[in-house]
Amino acid sequence: MQSTPSTCRASAKAVLAAFGVALLASGAAFAKQSDRQQPINVISTSFDGTQQQPTDKNPGHVIWTGNVKLTQGTLTVTGNKATGYLDADNQLIRVVVDGNAHMQQQDEQNLWMRGNANNIDYTPDNGDAKNTSSGIAVLTGKAHVEKEVDPADRKKLNQSNGDKLTYNTNTSTMTGESNGAEPVHMIFQPKQQPAPAPGAAPAKPATPPAVPAAPTKKP
């Protein structure tokens, strides 16, 4: 059967979902759980809060522009512009970052995940177990995600590229999609093999028996 762009996208998404499981199976830990207990800080060059109060039709939102940087524990999200959406309690419930969007976070083994895309749509983890979107980051447009896999070798990375990558910051799992023009591309690093045991040292030659001294002749 000939593959169509839609079946290619479905297959790519299924394969990358398996890749997310593989990240955990290869020893990657959950994202650092203490991050969700930390406050969210946002800095930027300028700020517009004129639409901060929510209405019946639209949630309240604020706009940060220029060198935007959001941090929560080890989690960092940066970009040219960010729109933050607020609930009725003025809690930040969603951030959409546009232009040179980047994010990174450590897991419980202090290994880094890093992601880049044209756009990142992130729902902060507020600890609400009923919110299935909590801690989800959607990277869109030339999306790239890499994950350190070896504490002893920080250059060893599992990597993936696609039009859209959805990363769960709580579980370190991911799904991905392609628009059909280019496939989702993944790189898996081989498992570190133990060094071979050193060979046995060569046996030392046996000490030759002592030669008895010749008997002394009597005069």
The CATH class is Mainly Beta
Task: Tell me the distance between the termini.
Answer: 112 Å
Average pLDDT reading: 78
Order of helices and strands: HEEEEEEEEEE
Q: What percentage of residues falls in helices of 4 or more residues?
A: under 10%
The total strand number stands at: 10
Instruction: State the low-pLDDT regions, or none.
Output: 1-28
Could you name the CATH homologous superfamily?
A: Lipopolysaccharide (LPS) transport protein A like domain
| Main pleated sheet | 10 strands, antiparallel
Tell me, briefly, the overall form. Answer: elongated
| CATH architectural category | Sandwich
Secondary-structure-derived class: mainly beta
Task: Write down the CATH topology.
Answer: lipopolysaccharide transport protein A fold
Q: What is the total domain count?
A: 1
Keywords: Periplasm, Signal, Transport
Pfam family, one: LptD_N
GO cellular component, one term: outer membrane-bounded periplasmic space
Region (Disordered): 148-219
